[in-house]
Amino acid sequence: MRAFSRLMMVMIAGLSVVACGAGAKGGAVTDDEMVMGNAKAKVTVIEYASASCSHCARFNADVFPAFKAKYVDTGQVKYVFREFLTQPVQLAAAGFLTARCAGKDKYFSVLDGVFRSQQEIFTTGDMRGPLVRVAKSAGMTEEKFIACVSDEKALKALSERVEKFGKQDNITGTPTFFINGKKLDGEQSMATLDAAISEAKAASK
Question: What is the pTM of this model?
């Protein structure tokens, strides 16, 4: 465990970091981004979040399932997830690298597993055990997990994405949302999302 922690500390030393909590454009969606829903939907919801952000984990557990069922699964919204890094950065980086290694078809299920493991990790101080368990649930071996979180090229790409989008959209905290370009800072309730999506639909007619 100590060797794993030292490895992650060395690798994340140069990464850009933002704050978890308080927060425009949204920017164009690129091919390598993680997307759900109808590509031709009139409303695009972009969420900037961190795998180590407790606010993001709470949104994932309490609001996202209903949002997904109501808007994404019905084709009304294209949802785009953008990775950001908050403290503890080791967890954020390792979570995202593991999810990317699992592949686009399993990315969101792995990320959900990381979010749901947050409290255990924060309580026990054991990051490796829960993350290995999440990786194995996606069909990865422990060896592949170690290779994933040790991949300097992938970590550099993650850092570049964080820096690029952070500057582009002036992201100061997570979660941050853009609904057809309108920025919403912080955790959002289903009622707030309903209102913003309704407004975006009306404006797109």
Answer: 0.89
- The domains of the chain, with CATH numbers, are 2-204 (3.40.30.10)
Q: Would you mind telling me the total number of residues written for the chain in this entry? A: 205
Q: Mean pLDDT of successive 10-residue segments in the chain (205 residues)?
A: 50 56 61 91 97 98 98 98 95 97 96 98 96 97 95 93 91 95 96 98 90
